Structure formats: C-alpha cells, structure tokens
Amino acid sequence: MPEESAGKGGEVAVVGAGIVGLASAVFLQRKGARVTVFDPLPPGGGASFGNAGLLSVESCIPISLPGMLRKVPQWLADPLGPLALDPRYALKAAPWLLAWVRAGRMKSVIAASTALRALHGDGLERYRELLGSVHFHDLVRTAGQVQVWEGASVSREERISHELWQRHGVVSETLGPHELRQLVPEISPAVSRAAFLPKNGHTVNPRRLVEVLALLLAEAGGSIRQERVMRLLPQEHGFRLVTNVGDHRFAKLLVAGGAWSKQLLTPIGVRLPLETERGNHATVRNPSFELRIPVLHKTRGFAATPMEGGLRFAGTVEIAGLDLPMNEKRAEVVLKQGRALFPSLRGDDVSIWMGFRPSLPDSVPVVGEVKAHPGLFIACGHGHTGMTAGAATGRLVAELMSGEKPFLDPLPYRLARFR
Questions:
Q1: What's the pLDDT tens digit per position in 36-48?
Q2: Gap between the Cα atoms of 263 and 144, Å rounded
Q3: CA–CA separation, 295 vs 54, rounded Å?
Q4: How far is residue 286 from each of residues 145, 230, 317, measured CA to CA in Å?
Q5: Answer CATH for 69-104+143-199+274-359 from 3.60.20.10, 3.30.9.10, 1.10.645.10, 3.30.1490.20
Q6: What is the CA angle 233-238-241, rounded to 5?
Q7: pTM (2 decimals)?
Q8: What pLDDT digit, counting tens, does each position of 336-394 carry?
C-alpha cells in the first residue's frame, strides 16, 4: 500500500526546496496548511545556492528586447561574451529561442515589464514579512546597487531599459566618474556610464537565507523530505507523488521545481515553455578589497556581489539543457570579466559553480493554478530574478492556494498566456 502522507483538504505538497518553493511553503504553513516539501537536494542546494544574491526590487526589464537578435551572432562569436549555445543542444533549444525572439517585440516587452514591476516592487517588504526582523537584518542589505555600461554610444537596448525605468517610476541616479568612484573606488576606467539604484539590495548568503526558511517551516510545523519526485499522478481527489523512496498522496500540490518543473509536468499534459539557462559563478575568497554594494555590468551580463564567502561574480547565459556536462570555461569567463572590471583585485583562492535557471521566453514566471488539474499550482520560470521575487511569489501562491484575495493581480502570470 502507498504511504498515506495526506488525505485532508489542508495537506499540501510542494515540489522544490529552493527560494520559491520554501517561501511558498512557509506562507502556506502559516495559513494553516500542513505542508510537506520534496527535493532530492537539501534546502538551497540548486540555483538558490549559487546565484548572485541580488534583491533587485526595481528590476522590470525582460531579457529579450527589440534589436537584441542582431547582437546574438556577436555574442556567440565572443569567447568572453555573455551568451553561449552548445551546438549539441541547438536544435532542441530552437523553439524556445524563437519564442524568446518573439517576446522581444515592444508590445510584449511592455506587458512583461509591467508584470515584473508589480511582482518585484514590494520585494523587500515581503522578505521582512517572511523572515522576520532579526533574520532580515542578518541576511539582507539594502544599500542599493550600481549598474554600469561600456562603450562610447548608448545601445538601443540600454535606451529602451531607461525608457521602461521612467515608465514604471524606477528611482535611479546617473553617476559621473567622480560619483561612481566614490561608491566603487576600484572600478575599471573602461566603464563609461553608470547608474545608482538606491532601492535595490542583496543577500549576503542566498543559501543560508533558504536554510533559514527551512528552519522557519519546521518551527511552524511543516516538513521536508529529501526525495526525488519521479512522477505526479492526478487522482480523483488530490494528487499522488511517486518518489525514489516513497508513494505519497496530497489534496493540493505546488510544483516549484525550478528547471526540472517541465519534466514533471509534461507527462500529465501540462505544456510549459520552459528552458534552462545555465549560469555560473566564481567566488574570490578573501579578496584584496571590500566591495560595499553590488555592481551589475549590463554590457557584459554579470554581477559582482559582496558575500559572506567572498566576492562573487555571477552571470552570463549558456543554453545547454540539463544533461550535458558542466563547461567550467564559462565560470572562467565570469572570473576574467570580474578581474577586468576590478583591475586591482587580488586573490587566487577561487571557487566555481554552475546551476540551472528556469527561464520562460518573456522573463515572467508562471504562478497559478492549472485549469486542467484543479488543485495543481505552478510557481516557476523566474529566470534571473528568482531571489528577487521569491518572497512575493510565495505570498501570492499561498493566497491563491488558500482561496484568498491575492495581494496583486495574478492574471499576468497565468500559464494560459502562452497558448
């Protein structure tokens, strides 16, 4: 007989112990649900471990923008470029890449930026609510971020980004060379333009933040099972989860499995246009200087973030799926770019990492119930902004699954927008 993990209306399974899954689980547990989280890795063991730690609440720019397609050949030809496409995976990735190009039309960009602005805007307040004051001040810094660009001329993508900032009331301050070096004395003279976004922040340790959420879940009465979900089976009343070591039943189910969500949903007829963007980081332990606030290099597509474990350079995109081996050269690219941004940086004790971003063509996550399977909810596809949107997504999910009026309009995040 299968193990009966649940059977009553308040019992919920969450697949995924990353930032989105655990934020959702904590909010659900506080609302009176009995939550069990499933993940083959310990809390924060995937993309929530190795990301840039940015809490970019002013972020409202989707990745695909008008005119960007023209730059793709240049990026692919540049071994230090922000984009790589593994030839072995190119054919499989083609449909998603075409959808990504279509999402770069201005009408779609405006819709996506509006949805991202709504989801991200109160992100720090949602983290205060989720973590509580003590944990928030331990884990989160709110001193802002600097964004920089190279090159003599302003690109079309950069101009559109600034237009979207103005459209959505993003607070930014243009920095001249003197003001920039007051904030970041070690910055390269190659930087030609810079902006300070004072409302943004970062976490000093994304993995520890997720581990704290796991503790908060346990304190509230929830549980975590380190099991791999092999199959989701919709039942007449609820759902059956077959894992590598068990067989469980629940009344409601949330799939927040990041890049692996598509593999779980496709067999039950749920079409999710999800692709994996591999991201890399290189962390310099005991760097020769202290970076006070994160710096995002928008031209090169990476971020530098001061963390408990050192100075982390994270970013770039590699389209290569879930199964091909890690390409450690991509982490070396990030490190080279970081050293170019900070020429005075010293420190040879460097750790590297590769993880999987769950990305949708329009950069907007799917959050909501699956119409064909009542009681099945999805929260995934955050791409580059999973840490930023984690707490807000968790609250939205909990309100939707509890039948409450959500704190923001869920319509822009529905799965049906892709049909």
A1: 999 999 999 989 9
A2: 37
A3: 10
A4: 21, 41, 26
A5: 3.30.9.10
A6: 40
A7: 0.95
A8: 999 999 999 998 899 999 999 999 999 999 999 999 999 999 999 999 999 999 999 99
